């Protein structure tokens, strides 16, 4: 396994997670019919990205999963710290 490929893929996985989170927040403001269509398109794009990374190499897939798996708890922790600091 190439460590640099794993690290780069982890950063990319984190970016994909944060982009998807922002997209979902934006989609929640749309009309229900548009929301369903946009969710389907988002799912197709995410599936394609994961498929391409899985084909690339084992270390790329491992890094992508690692980055996408670690980002949500770290993101929540950052948001809590920001809110806690603002409240102080």
Question: Would you mind describing this structure in some detail?
Answer:
The protein has 88 residues and is mostly helical. It is 91% helix and 0% strand. It is built from 3 helices and no strands. It has helices at 3-27, 32-56, 58-87. Helix 1 (3-27) packs antiparallel against helix 2, helix 1 crosses helix 3 and helix 2 (32-56) packs across helix 3. The longest helix has 30 residues, at 58-87. The chain starts with a helix and ends with a helix. The mean pLDDT is 81.
List the helices and strands and how they pair.
Layout: H1 3-27, H2 32-56, H3 58-87
Brief account:
This protein is an all-alpha fold and about 90 residues long. Helices cover about 90% and strands about 0% of the residues. It is flat, with a radius of gyration of 16 Å.
> Would you list the SSEs in sequence order as H and E?
HHH
Number of strands: 0
Mean pLDDT: 81
The 3D shape can be described as flat
Strand percentage lies at: under 5%
Please describe the structure with a list of short key phrases separated by commas or semicolons.
88 residues, mainly alpha
């Amino acid at each position: 396994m190439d460590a640099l490929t794993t690290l780069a893929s982890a950063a990319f996985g984190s970016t994909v997670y944060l982009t998807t989170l922002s997209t979902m927040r934006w989609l929640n403001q749309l009309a229900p019919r548009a929301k369903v269509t946009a969710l389907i398109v988002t799912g197709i794009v995410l599936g394609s990205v994961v498929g391409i990374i899985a084909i690339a190499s084992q270390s790329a897939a491992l890094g992508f999963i690692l980055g996408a798996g670690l980002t949500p708890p770290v993101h929540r922790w950052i948001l809590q710290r920001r809110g806690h600091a603002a409240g102080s």
